[in-house]
Amino acid sequence: xxxxxxxLEVIFSLITNGSSGPLPQGSNRDQLVQTLCQNRQNIEACAxxxxxxxxMNCQQREQMMMDSTVQSTGRAVATLCGVQPEMPxxxxxxxxxxxxxxxxxxxxxxxxxxxxxxxTEGTGMxxxxxxxxxxxxxxxxxxxxxxxxxLQSLVTECTKQEQFMVGQTLQNMMASYQSVCTxxxxxxxxxxxxxxxxxxxDELEKCSMETMKVSTVDVMMLLTKGQVPDGQDMSQxxxxxxxxxxxxxxxxxxxxxxxxxxxxxxxxxxxxxANMVITIGxxxxxxxxxxxxxxxxxxxxxxxxxxxxxxxxxxxxNQTAHKGALLGTTREMATQxxxxxxxxxxxxxxxxxxxxxxxxxxxxTGFDLTSMERAVGVLCNDIPEYLAGLDCFxxxxxxxxxxxxxxxxxxxxxxxxxxxxxxxxxxxxxxxCKIRVDHVSxxxxxxxxxxxxxxxxxxxxECLLLPARCHNINEDDIVKxxxxxxxxxxxxxxxxVEMSINNCLTPYSINADMFVVNITHxxxxxxxxxxxxxxxxxxRKSIHKCLTKAVxxxxxxxxxxxxxxxxxxxxxxxxxxxx
Length: 579
Fold this sequence. Notes:
Layout: H1 8-15, H2 29-38, H3 40-47, H4 50-53, H5 60-80, H6 89-104, H7 109-116, H8 127-134, H9 137-152, H10 160-182, H11 195-212, H12 216-225, H13 234-243, H14 245-259, H15 263-283, H16 292-295, H17 297-307, H18 312-321, H19 331-353, H20 358-363, H21 369-380, H22 383-388, H23 390-394, H24 398-421, H25 425-444, H26 452-465, H27 468-473, H28 475-481, H29 491-505, H30 512-518, H31 530-538, H32 540-552, H33 557-562, H34 571-576
Helix pairs in contact: 1-5, 5-10, 6-9, 9-15, 10-15, 11-14, 11-15, 12-15, 14-15, 17-19, 19-21, 21-26, 24-25, 25-26, 29-32
Protein name: DUF19 domain-containing protein
């Protein structure tokens, strides 16, 4: 009030483009912005000490909330005034990750932030065009996904207070985004939602009351403004919300599926729920969804490079440029990678198996370490041709870009169907495998100006990169697209694998079928007499080597053995604990 005679609500309205509430009747936005910017530094200097000067016994979360509000508001005002504020280190990390994720998924991050800032400068579009593009269904889904994953990835990089502040900033930013896209607040006065959204709001309210014993409005008022409902104890309320957060999340996901909203209503319901989950998760410092280890999985994979003697920076920077440079850009790099690849993938598989749920979660993104290792083997067998194609593949042709865009669009559409209707695992693979196989077919014909031998090698790589399950589901299509030596048919060598496993175990009087099925389960009587068990354990390294060789020589064998309850990558650990 002492610096420009501003009500706090007016400042919030200016920096959120009205999504937090309208400006006072008769006021001029341009004049208000000019006055605010003239007094910006004085306001900032006045507001910064307030959280530390509050003469009350504030809890840590309350203190964090005040700090977050002051800092995020200050940065938003600076941006409104055309000043690029210096970001705190954690927010800068989030900003880099968030923008990188959007760019990787073909969403222009600059357009997103310009939309929020109510400017079209440099976009080549008017505001309606900018909003239509940035608020399209696919871009909204991508932005929400990138926001969530980028926030979760900060768990090992930032303090709890920093994570909370970033979460608060993100929640406000996403709320403004939804407001701009819909042309109105998500739940606004005198603007009744559609019947579908009304049902969603009612059901989500039930979830909140049944799981956290407090309304959704009260939850968000507490988390974003620190206001405690009448008659409630803040400490007890905090504990109740954080203790029951997962139950609320599970209930909310069911609500989104059951209400079956379509089009814009689906985006609004997903956006509302995502905002709540992001905010509550940050407030409660939650790191267990989808699992704390899942949040650091990529970092753990990167460490594997160092552990086997490879420089991760040399490979990851090229890998993000285009898939063709997976082994590096020189003969020396490719040779070194290929010589270390077995140790590298062994390390990465151990990382996966030490993270509960990682394999299942990564499978649903199409990431398959077994297929990746199999495909990389093809490149390693022909390093000269691999290197010969690098320059051409570095700049995708227009046709290749269309293939990539089509695959991205189809996978996004499939994800939306999963969220709206719920797909079984079989249903997921039916859709996912078709999309992937269609992409291989499209990509194989998209490099007309490249060396035909290099294109053939790339197609082999793409074919072997398909999970073995896709080779079974889409066998008729794959035989038309993929070279004969790039078609995975586990059944053609599975009998040989079983015989090889039997040969590895016969000297120790162990039944191969029992060993394969039960190695990760009950092994109490499998080794027989004490003398036989001691003999087995003395030779366990050579046994492990024999078994690994048997499985690795049969493409797809690991996947087929997994159906029997056998996990080849846990074998070494199991053998160490056999006695």
